[in-house]
């Protein structure tokens, strides 16, 4: 019997794990892949307090070391597929294993959205990518495009410009949503060209991406753009598919919580990108994880005293 089962091994989950372990709660963290989530795809982090500059992999590595030193049990490549929430003791099912527990902290994060184009999945790894940091090295001195207008898209464009000969940013609107400092860096980069008011209509290629058809949304005109790589950065959606009809969520599937990270079910908490929040950053995820852990500890103490 665990006091706490944490589902997800990104900054929120690791932060929750550190606080739970330090509170001497018997805790296990379950992660369906490697630790870190989207943070590990970030080449350079400059807005996390205490670090002038650090890579995502290094930051997560530091968090993991601290969590293990605190006594947190961590299981990677352990994908959760079911929660059993009836009664005071809950169960988290992952593979053939069952983890009985008193409380659960959901910190599964989110994943990037695709373009939903015909043949898009077939080009993954053959020119289409959702992670610039992961794949930029494959496009040295080549022409690439980034779809999107937010922070991630412009970060990706700036990073890709270190490798590619030309970077096109394809954005469906006439202005970017990215923070001003990121916009300024892109506008000053001679390798980056922004194609305003355009969308990607078709991906073309044989064994590898060769070109795309892009559409001017104002004129309706289609143009062929020759590129070797396409990086998609148009948003994300939370890893909450298996939790539908269990917790209160918004229309996009983000879990609703209160200021103590409590979900609509007592004893179940949510932290980080998986929850409904106005800001999704490493710093906010870490704070969420700490709050969720303290709330879980108090819930356990309160329910124990009632019994």
The level of helicity is 10-25%
Weakly predicted, low-confidence segments: none
Cα Rg: 21 Å
Strands, count? 17
Name the helix and strand elements from N-terminus to C-terminus, one letter apiece: EHEHEEEEEEHEHEHEEEEEEEH
Q: Helix count, per DSSP?
A: 6
Overall pLDDT confidence: 94
Q: Looking at the structure, what is the overall shape?
A: elongated
Assign the structural class, choosing from mainly alpha, mainly beta, alpha/beta, alpha+beta, or little secondary structure: alpha/beta
Beta content: 25-35%
Walk me through this protein's architecture.
With 307 residues, the chain is an alpha/beta fold. 24% of the residues lie in helices and 27% in strands. The strands form 4 sheets. Strands 1, 2, 3, 4, 5, 6 and 17 form a 7-stranded mixed sheet that branches. The chain has a 5-stranded parallel sheet with strand order 8-15-9-10-11, with helices on one face. A 3-stranded antiparallel sheet has the order 12-13-14, with no helix packed on it. Helix 1 packs parallel to helix 2, helix 1 packs across helix 6 and helix 4 runs parallel beside helix 5. The chain is elongated.
């Amino acid at each position: 019997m665990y006091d706490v089962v944490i589902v997800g091994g990104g900054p929120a989950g690791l932060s929750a794990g550190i606080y739970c372990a330090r509170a001497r709660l018997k805790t296990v963290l379950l992660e369906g892949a490697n630790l870190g989530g989207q943070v590990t795809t970030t080449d350079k982090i400059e807005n996390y307090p205490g670090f002038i500059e650090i890579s995502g992999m290094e930051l997560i590595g530091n968090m993991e070391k601290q969590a293990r030193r605190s006594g947190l049990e961590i299981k990677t490549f352990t994908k959760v597929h079911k929660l059993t929430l009836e009664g005071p003791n809950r169960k988290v099912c992952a593979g053939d294993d069952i983890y009985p527990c008193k409380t659960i902290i959901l910190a599964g994060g989110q994943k990037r959205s695709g373009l939903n184009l015909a043949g898009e999945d077939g080009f993954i790894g053959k020119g289409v990518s959702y992670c610039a940091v992961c794949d930029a090295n494959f496009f040295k001195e080549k022409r690439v495009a980034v779809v999107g207008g937010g922070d991630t898209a412009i970060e990706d464009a700036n990073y890709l410009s270190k490798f590619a000969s030309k970077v096109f940013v394809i954005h469906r609107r006439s202005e970017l949503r990215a923070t001003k400092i990121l916009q300024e860096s892109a506008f000053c980069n001679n390798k980056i060209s922004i194609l305003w008011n355009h969308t990607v209509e078709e991906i073309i290629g044989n064994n590898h991406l060769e070109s795309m058809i892009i559409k001017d949304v104002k004129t309706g005109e289609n143009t062929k753009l020759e590129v070797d790589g396409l990086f998609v950065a148009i948003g994300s959606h939370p890893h909450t598919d298996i939790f539908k009809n269990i917790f209160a969520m918004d229309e996009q599937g983000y879990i609703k919580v209160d200021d103590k990270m409590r979900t609509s079910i007592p004893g179940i908490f949510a932290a980080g990108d998986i929850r409904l929040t106005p800001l999704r950053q490493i710093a906010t995820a870490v704070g969420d994880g700490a709050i969720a852990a303290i709330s879980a500890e108090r819930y356990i103490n309160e329910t124990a005293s009632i019994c």
